[in-house]
Write a structure and sequence with these properties.
There is one protein chain. The protein has 231 residues and is of the alpha/beta class. It has a domain of 155 residues: Rossmann fold. The protein is 51% helix and 16% strand. The chain contains 9 helices and 6 strands. Strands 1, 2, 3, 4, 5 and 6 form a 6-stranded mixed beta sheet that branches. A hairpin with a 5-residue loop joins strand 5 and strand 6. The longest helix is centred in the first third of the chain and has 19 residues. The chain is globular and about 45 Å long.
């Protein structure tokens, strides 16, 4: 186990430029792990599988609106977990999340579970203290799947409130709440994220183009498309 952790540290140094992993940033880091499907039914299997990483990235994006937090990029966690063969059996437990969180310089780790029962959608999130492995908070949101984006905004706010972090400025909070992001846009975005993980860049880019055209308010798709084009 020690050898694997040392190997993980070497991987981290290879994929993270100096200063990015928190050395020069004193804000508390937060790492969000892939969500676990807790037993959903009634939706397409591929869509449900994609949501595990789609919800992860969407929650990271919402938490990224809080300037008081330093966000650990999803790709960094993905590469590190793949290198150490973690998460292949599904749910990431608190000890594993804390161990990986320490490697990436995070202060908090978030693990989550979602359940979609024919459109009755629930998300549970656990906030883990990386230093002690203690579960500090357990948050839950539940609503119709059509309101999936609103649920993500709500659970991000619950997490930051529970950690006593400064709230979003009123103008930013209102702008996020007013966005009209249908669940189909999040589903397509989740598939695109999954395609990236599988190395299917062209298919991911095509989905990002589709989202940008059909759902222009979901600016994350256009931003990611531009990043892939530049890369």
């Amino acid at each position: 186990m020690v050898r694997r952790l040392l190997t993980g540290m070497a991987l981290l140094l290879a994929i993270v430029p100096a200063g990015v992993a928190g050395q020069n940033d004193t804000r508390p880091g937060i790492a969000v792990f892939p969500f676990t499907n807790g037993g959903s039914y009634g939706a397409d299997r591929e869509d449900l599988e994609a949501l595990t990483v789609g919800l992860q990235q969407m929650l990271l994006t919402e938490l990224g609106q809080y300037g008081s937090l330093r966000i650990v990029e999803r790709s960094m966690l993905r590469d590190l977990m793949a290198e150490q063969d973690l998460g292949t059996t599904g749910r990431v437990d608190a000890q594993t999340a804390a161990r990986v969180g320490r490697i990436v310089g995070a202060r908090y780790a978030i693990t989550g579970v979602f359940v979609d029962l024919n459109g009755d959608f629930r998300m549970d999130g656990r906030v883990i203290d990386v230093e002690t492995t203690e579960i500090l908070r357990t948050e839950q949101v539940r609503d119709n799947r059509a309101n999936l984006y609103s649920m993500l905004v709500d659970i991000a706010a619950q997490i930051t409130d529970g950690l006593d972090l400064p709230p979003l400025p009123a103008q930013v909070r209102e702008a996020r709440a007013e966005r009209r992001i249908p669940d189909r846009a999040i589903t397509l975005y989740s598939r695109a994220q999954a395609y990236e993980d599988y190395g299917r860049k062209d298919q991911a880019m095509e989905l990002y183009r589709q989202i940008a055209q059909e759902f222009p308010e979901m600016t994350e798709a256009e931003q990611r498309l531009e990043q892939l084009r530049a890369g």
